[in-house]
Amino acid sequence: MTNPMTITEKILAHHADKDSVGPGDLIEVSVDMVLANDITAPLAIRVFDELGTGRGFDREKIALVPDHFVPNKDIPSAQQAKIMKEFARLHDIKYYFEPGDAGIEHVILPEKGLVVPGDLVIGADSHTCTYGALGAFSTGMGSTDVGVSMATGKTWLKVPATIKVVYQGRLCPWVGGKDLILYTIGILGVEGAVYKALEFSGDVAGSLPMFQRLTMANMAVEAGAKNGIFECDEITRAYMEGRSERTPVYFNSDKDATYERVIDVDVSSIEPQVAFPHSPDNVRPVSQAGDIRVDQVFIGSCTNGRIEDLREAAGVLKRRSTARDTRLIVLPGSPLVYRQAIKEGIIETLLEAGAVIGPPCCGPCLGGHMGILADGERAISTSNRNFIGRMGHANSEVYLSNPAIAAASAVLGRIGAPEEIGCVVSEQKGCSDTILNF
Amino acid sequence: MKFEGKVWKFGDHIDTDVIIPARFLNVSDKDELKKSCFIDTRPDFAKGVVSGDIIVAGINFGCGSSREHAPLAIKAAGVGVVIAKGFARIFYRNAFNIGLPILESEEAFASFSEGDRISVDLVTGEIRGLESGKSFFAKPIPTFMQQIIAAGGLVNYIKERG
Ligand code: SF4
User: How does pLDDT run along chain A (438 residues), one tens digit per residue?
Assistant: First the structure.
């Protein structure tokens, strides 16, 4: 008999070829997918070349996604993207994508079935933790670690202790994964889970659709966590149906697994949340936001750039217009999301409301391009970070919310809720397909 | 290894966007990176920092993105060592990997102010105020990380092991 373990510990033990592991163990693990983007890949490639192994460990287990500054915004970024492309061609990397087939890394990897439950994934991007939604262990590292793993197929890790967050109760209207994770980061603080695993649990977590799980796992790093993870269930299996050529391994935590801390959250009284500048843990319920005028609304990113997010935004924006002094920028998270949004008439609705639709990429989320804020400007964004200068000028401000709040704020010209513009959901599940307009 | 220099004091949660904003990540050359280090919040830093100077900061230093450009920029600017009450996970790992020495000490943060001259002994972990004479020992560096430093970074460490 092995010790009882959490899902995180089980996946790590599996990849370390051990029967069991526990918090604090230093282990060497094999990786199933190594990821880098147009900002981090050039440094990783330099490290890879220095190591001098000549070949990548497995051409099918490396993903290189140009998404941060593409379509290339200037000559230096074009040079960086070129380094990545040439490397991909030289080593015949299977998962390198040209813009047009690419999109935001953390949107496309799950979408294309490149990550499956039970995987161990490392990426030179802090939001690599997104894939925990699928019941995989995934974590962000720097370019050196990733360059080494591209050559060796291995990395070292310290097994994290796990903090379990148990969500119970009944979700209020417009409340979903984004609100739950913002609320949780508000409780933990931005350093509250440093070096830890965050396991999302309880009936409410178990009922969340995959896109909302992806949003929550995505932001685990905003509490400092090494990884965020959901146990595998029917929703995981249904999501994986026909999606990948690889075989998933479905892990769950043992009932008597040890947790460093268990946090119980009654969701029944949680309103949609807004994170105020300049920290994702600086959260307030939307009803207490006060009169915050916004110059820009951004809907997109690896946190909320999926089709369901756009559906929710379009539901709120239908037959409405953005406020006169507010610009609305929408970037679908992937070409597939974009196409589906066209098919469903979502793009039409957004355009009629006055939105600018940009290509699938990170864009303004990191202050890259396509929506940079000027001195003193304010934005509400569905992305994950609102640090000083994150989306532009050091004196600009970023507020974070879910797509429905962002859409309503675009109409109001200030931060507000859909109810304020006469938009209600028919059922108490914060879900986009039940939006009614009056 | 010993460093002696001036303290540049920072608060809690110094994130990687503050260390180097994303608009400067379109290059990976370290001489370019150092120019943008703390450019938005402390524009005097990159020009004023002298080789061997020391950053003293609060909790969660380096939180946010995985950009290795952040420790690279700090190192390229000439900072000898970063002492913080605590580090964000990815930054901690990146700093060792690229050979930027970092130490954890609560007392250093409490005792030293901007502009103080201090010395740091990386081998013993001793941090000493040159004017005040106050001295503390940083939290010991985990053995595995020491091996990476001894090898001169992760790349050499891997090469040595074959
Ligand atoms: S969308 Fe934003 S948070 Fe996500 S990978 Fe791109 S820059 Fe990073």
Answer: 679 999 999 999 999 999 999 999 999 999 999 999 999 999 999 999 999 988 999 999 999 999 999 999 999 999 999 999 999 999 999 999 987 899 999 999 999 999 999 999 999 999 999 999 999 999 999 999 999 999 999 999 999 999 999 999 999 999 999 999 999 999 999 999 999 999 999 999 999 999 999 999 999 999 999 999 999 999 999 999 999 999 999 999 999 999 999 999 999 999 999 999 999 999 999 999 999 999 999 999 999 999 999 999 999 999 999 999 999 999 999 999 999 999 999 999 999 999 999 999 999 999 999 999 999 999 999 999 999 999 999 999 999 999 999 999 999 999 999 999 999 886 544 444 455 544
Contact A387 B17 (CB under 8 A): yes
Domain locations along chain A: 7-265, 273-437
Alpha helices in A74-167 (DSSP H): 75-90, 105-111, 143-152
Q: Give the fold, CATH level 3, of A273-437.
A: Aconitase; domain 3 (3.30.499)
Amino acid letter, A196: K
- Domain of residue B141, residue span: 2-160
Closest CA relative to residue A123, chosen from A103, A147, A159: A147
- The count of residues in chain B is 162
Q: Which of A67, A131, A181 to mutate to test the pocket of ligand 1 (most atoms within 8 A of CB)?
A: A67
User: CA A128 to CA B94: how far, in whole Å?
Assistant: 16
Q: What CATH number does the domain containing B56 carry? A: 3.20.19.10
Fold for domain A7-265? Aconitase; domain 3 (3.30.499)
Number of structural domains in chain B: 1
H or E segment to which residue A355 belongs: strand A355-357
Which residue type does B82 have?
A: V
Interchain CB distance below 8 Å, B64 and A126: yes
* Mutation to test the A interface, candidates B20, B25, B39, most A Cβ within 10 Å: B25
Output the six-digit token pair for A93.
């990397």
Neighbours of A328 (CB within 10 A): 26
Residue to mutate, A38, A67, A127, ligand 1, most ligand atoms under 8 Å from C-beta: A127
> What gap in Å lies between CA A151 and CA A428, rounded to an integer?
49
Strands, DSSP E only, in B15-146? Answer: 54-57, 81-84, 102-104, 117-121, 126-129, 135-137
